[in-house]
Amino acid sequence: MKMKTVITVSSDTVLTNIIKKNLESLYNLIVFSGIASAIDCIYNSIPDLVVIEIDLNDTTAIDILTGLKGDPMFSQLPLLAILPENADIPEWNSFFVEDYIRMPDIEREILSRVELCIIRSERVVEINPLTRLPGNISINKQIQKRLDVNDIFALAYLDIDHFKPFNDKYGFSRGDEVIKVMGRLILNIVKNKQAQHSFVGHIGGDDFIYIINTDIIEETSAEIIDAFNRIIQTFYNQEDREKGYIQSRDRQGNIKEFSFMTVSIGIASNKYGHFVHYGEITEIASKMKTQAKRLKGGSFKVDRRNISI
Prior knowledge:
Elements: E1 5-9, H1 13-23, E2 28-32, H2 35-44, E3 49-53, H3 59-70, E4 79-83, E5 99-102, H4 106-124, H5 136-148, E6 154-161, H6 163-170, H7 172-193, E7 199-204, E8 207-212, H8 217-231, H9 238-243, E9 245-249, E10 255-259, E11 262-269, E12 273-274, H10 278-292, E13 299-302, E14 307-308
């Protein structure tokens, strides 16, 4: 079983050594001295838990954490706070962590609290276990919330072309690696383009969505396609790379030649029409994705019709 990833944030070497002693053999443990240095790692690959030593008087760190939890992409990321022995606990409805431990209890409680936080988050939070990205329920809520407040946004529906033949030939393990890389790639590019108020979700399998401002949706999509095209060949064996294609079975069971995987993206926006229900705009994006699939080499199609629903 793949080890869960726990990011620990503390400048106290005694504290981090205690945490390492208790967690290192059971978790993929990554240690940072401060939250600012940990943010890039969190953005690039969402961990299962963040354990962080918090000084409630450190307004800079508090602001960073508040901003992180306020981002719809990371609101589901569980945070376990380590607090001084006599620290006053803020009101829970304004506190951004899911649980806390006081400093004198670290040695005795850190392992059980970490286990509890991760188990609880997996029960309550609806995320894809492979990519750690929000799943369908969160995606639909996110779209509907934006529609309800008349927020103007673009929705992109991304699908990997020829993924099934690749998965059939190389196996689920390598297929899962492609899915994970795809998720990280989309997340990194979307967040680099628009750090705040953007969103990335994993519908399931090789289907993803992302939400971003309408004025940068096309350049973002083009960058995702280009990045995917540059890295995908590394997942194929040398023999197949030299041929430029693989042989695998189609959905009818016939042996066929398939070109390397690319991505097709369908884009819809409420800039061009009024939508009431999330299903209306996702249906348009899905239709645009189907049109994009008719083109070769990776492409996106944008619906610009004036639609009144």
